[in-house]
Amino acid sequence: MIRIGWLLAMTALSLAMLPVGGCEQPRRSSDSLLAPPRPDGDPLSQAQQIVLDGLADADPQIRANSIEVIATTRCVRLMPRVQGLLHDPAVPVRFLAILAVGDLGYRLAADDITQLLEDPDANIRIAAAYAMMKLGRADYYKVVRSAVTSEDQTVRANAALLLGKSGQRDAIPALYWALQRPDSADKVVLQAAESIAMLHDERIYPKLWTRLISAYADDRVLGIRAMGALGTEQAKNAIITMLDDRVVEVRLAAAEQLGKLGESIGEARVAEVFEKDLLAGMDADGRHRVKVLAAMAIGEIRSESLARYLPQLLRDPAKPVRLAAAKAILRRTPL
User: Which of 190, 213, 217, 227 satisfies CB 3.0 to 4.6 Å to 2 for a cystine?
Assistant: First the structure.
C-alpha cells in the first residue's frame, strides 16, 4: 500500500523530494518536465551543467535539490553559486544553502551566515546556528539543542534534523524527549528517530523495525533510510530483507542504503528496472519516482555495470531525474 504523496520527498534527493526536514514544501512547477539539455559533452560536464541550471531554476524545489546535490557530493567549487541563494525568497532553499555552507566549511560565506542569525524565520536562525557551529563556533550548538523544545512543530523537526547532523551524542536525550512527547507531530517523531540513528544509538533499532514492517511503502522507505543511518550489522541485515519487498521503490531504497554501507548486493534490483522494463504500466509520476531512486542507488553502489544506465537518465525529460543522475555522476567522479 502506498499513501498519497508517497513521501518520496523524504528520501532527500536525499533528492527526492522534500529536502527540508520540516520547512514549507514549495509547489512543484510544470517547468520541471521541460526538455532535457542537449546531450553534448562528457557525462561529468553534463552533470555539472544540470546542477548549475538547477540552481537558477524557477522552481524552488529544483533549486533546493540542486543545493543538496552540491552539499552531498562536496562540490566546493560550486559553492559561490550556492552562496547567492542564502537570501532566496523560499525558506527551504535558504535552509539548505545555509546547511551546505556549514557542511562544506565554506568560510567565504561566514558574514552572510552571521546576518542570518537574526532572520525573522526561526528555521533559518537555527540553520545559521548549525552552520556557525560547523564553522568552528561550538557555542552555537546550544541554540540548536534548545530549539528542539520549540512549540512550533516545524522548528522542532528541523532542530531534530540538525542535532542528528551535528554528530553530538549528548543530543540523544533531547531527541528521545522529542520522540516521546505526546505533542510531537509525526514529522518530529520521524526525524527524531532518524537523527537518533544518525548518532548511532542502537536502542532505536526496535522503533525503526516497526517502520520496515508497516503496510505502507513510504513508511518502509523511511525505515530503510534510518536503518542505513544507524549502520550496524543488525541494521544492515534488516535492510537486506527489504530487497525482496513487493514494491520496486522500496527495493531501490534498500539497494541505495546498502550501497552507502559498502554492499553491492542490491545491484541486481537496480538493473532490473532497466532490463525488465519495470516502468511499463506506471504513470508519469511513478516512472519519475523509480528513475530518481534508481539513479540514487547507482550513485551509492558505484559499479561500472550500473553506470551505463546514467547517460539515459541524464537526458530524461524530468528535471528531478536528471538531477538524481547528475548526483550519481558526481558521487563517482567528484569535481
Answer: 217
Count how many domains the chain has. 1
Is residue 296 within 8 Å of 327, Cβ to Cβ? Answer: yes
Neighbours of 133 (CB within 10 A): 20
Taking the C-alpha atoms of residue 156 and residue 184, their distance in angstroms, rounded to an integer, is: 8
Please give the Cα distance from 153 to 149 (Å, whole number).
9
Is 289 domain-assigned?
yes
> Residue 291: which domain range?
7-18+200-335
**DSSP letter at 14?**
B
Q: Can you tell me the distance from the alpha carbon of 149 to that of 319, in angstroms, rounded to the nearest whole number?
A: 37
Best CA proximity match to 98, nearest among 125, 58, 146, 131? 131
pLDDT tens sequence across 154-164: 999 999 999 99
The answer to whether residue 123 is domain-embedded is: no
* Non-local CB neighbours of 237 within 8 Å, separated by 6+ positions: none
pTM: 0.88
Neighbours of 23 (CB within 10 A): 25
Q: Is the pLDDT of residue 136 over 80?
A: yes
CA–CA separation, 244 and 125 (whole Å): 43
User: How many helices (DSSP H) and strands (DSSP E) are in the chain?
Assistant: 19, 2
SS3 label, residue 11: strand
Instruction: State how far the Cα of 279 lies from the Cα of 117, in Å rounded to an integer.
Output: 46
CATH code of the domain in which 294 resides: 1.25.10.10
Q: Has residue 280 been placed in a domain?
A: yes
